[in-house]
Amino acid sequence: MRKIILTGDRPTGRLHIGHYVGSLRQRVELQNSGLYDMIFIMIADAQALTDNIDNPEKVRQNIIEVALDYLACGLDSTKSTLFVQSQISELFELSFYYMNLVTVSRLQRNPTIKMEIKMRNFGKNIPVGFFTYPISQAADITAFKATTVPVGEDQLPMIELTKEIVRKFNSLYGKVLVEPEALLPDNKACQRLPGIDGKSKMSKSLNNCIYLSDTADEVKKKVMNMYTDPNHLRVEDPGNVEGNPVFTYLDAFCKNEHFSRYFPEYNNLDELKEHYTKGGLGDVKVKKFLNAILQEELEPIRKRRAEFAKDIPEVYNILKKGNYMAREVAANTLAEVKSAMKINYF
Ligand code: TRP
Questions:
Q1: In the chain, N or C terminus with fewer CB closer than 10 Å?
Q2: Which parts of the chain are coiled coil (predicted)?
């Protein structure tokens, strides 16, 4: 069977280092591994509109920001198809048929949706489009017959629902659709990177992000102001590495080679954590180390972003070509779906 990747992001803001360790970095590795027959990376603007219907301008502007972030990270339009969800009308046709395979109570049990409904204070006024976006996400995945969906852990309920839809569809109408597997980053710290304030998740609305497009100065300032262990007041005090975002970021970014480059007093992260836990290691030193690592990782991304940003029409061209390719694949699947459902009258 062919190995196909589909994944994507909502264009509601620039992408941050949580997106990077949670998915982007891995996508680039998968792309460059040569193990996949096709890779589709989608800017999910239609999904973004399900809770931004009053702010289309925001979604519009962030399409280009997200495309720049993708290219900056090393997604390469000659190896991966980058495209815009709303331009593939086949996806919405598929969604409409899939809606009959899912119950309202099934959607109500989706923990990600539940949490999002709470965070957005929808109360009783949940837009139907928002409520049903997991079904549209199943259409995104199955339209490309994706076998692998690299995502963060908050997306697992969507992949689960997609599998259920695929099983139901195939058992009713014959084997047309492919069951996807989620692919999470193997490192726990990468699955849910906390914000610089130590709050549960890095998120634009909490204003606690380090963006891929932040300048070197901005990154440094944010790192030096990061929340750490509030009981670690003096250098001599024992410190806590659990729930300390500085150490979580180190878990996500630090490699042993960084020590010889920037912190030769230690051989590895375990030694550093041990010293911090025991006492006698100040936060400033650890933050300076983290800053050095982040700068090393983010500098090439920032440079590539600036290069691509010099020719925005070319970035739109890349997306346009991607739309064309994506549309062809989705149209084939839709034709198969419709004929399996006997909607091929003429
Ligand atoms: N829900 C994803 C997000 O919040 C975006 C998305 C839409 C997606 N369709 C998808 C991700 C299909 C993976 C597969 O960013």
A1: C
A2: none
